[in-house]
Amino acid sequence: MTAAEKSFKKAIQLGLSMDHDLAMAKMSLAGILMQKRRKREATALLSEAKKLDKHGMLTSQLKTMQQQMKKI
């Protein structure tokens, strides 16, 4: 889990060429942070991912994650 978190942070820091790729990376990192009970950071990443998802490709996944976050 920690290795995946480091890898996603590095990918985000280095930058991805497509907005939807960056949105997916942020959403995945938010999922990891949710499992670690780091709700504030996960919420910020989900909102950033939502802004980057201009074509609505991740809409259903983002909604699902936000619903799961309410249970934490």
Q: Which properties best describe this structure?
A:
mainly alpha; 72 residues; 0% strand; 4 helices
What does this protein look like?
The chain is an all-alpha fold. The protein has one domain. It contains 4 helices and no strands. The protein is flat. The chain starts with a helix and ends with a helix.
Annotate the secondary structure layout:
Elements: H1 2-14, H2 19-35, H3 39-52, H4 59-70
The oligomeric status of these chains comes to: single chain
What is the element string, with H for helices and E for strands? Answer: HHHH
Count the DSSP helices: 4
Report mean pLDDT, rounded to a whole number: 91
Q: Which structural class fits the helix and strand makeup?
A: mainly alpha
Q: What is the number of strand segments?
A: 0
Inertia-based shape: flat
Distance, first to last CA: 18 Å
Low-confidence segments, given as residue ranges, are: none
Task: Produce a short descriptive summary.
Helices cover 78% and strands 0% of the residues.
